[in-house]
Amino acid sequence: MPEFSLMDRIRHLAKDRTPELVGMRRHLHQNPELSFEEAETGRYIASRLLDMGIPFNTGWAGHGIVGLIEGKGSGPVTALRADMDALPISEQTGLPFASVRPGVMHACGHDAHMTCLLGAAGILNEMREHWPGTIKLIFQPAEEKCPGGAAAMIEEGVLRSPAPTAIFGLHVLPELPAGKVGFREGMAMAAADELYLTIEGKGGHGAQPHLNVDPIAISAALLTTLQQVVSRRSNPLVPCVLTFGKIWSEGGATNIIPTRVHIEGTLRTFDEGWRKEAHALVEKMTADIPRSMDGKGILEIRKGNPPLYNDPALTRETRDWAVDYLGHENVVDIEPRMGAEDFAWYSKALPACFWRLGTAPPGREGAPGLHSPHFDLDESALSIGAGLTAWIACHRQKTAG
Question: What is the CA angle 303-306-308, rounded to 5?
Answer without folding.
Answer: 150
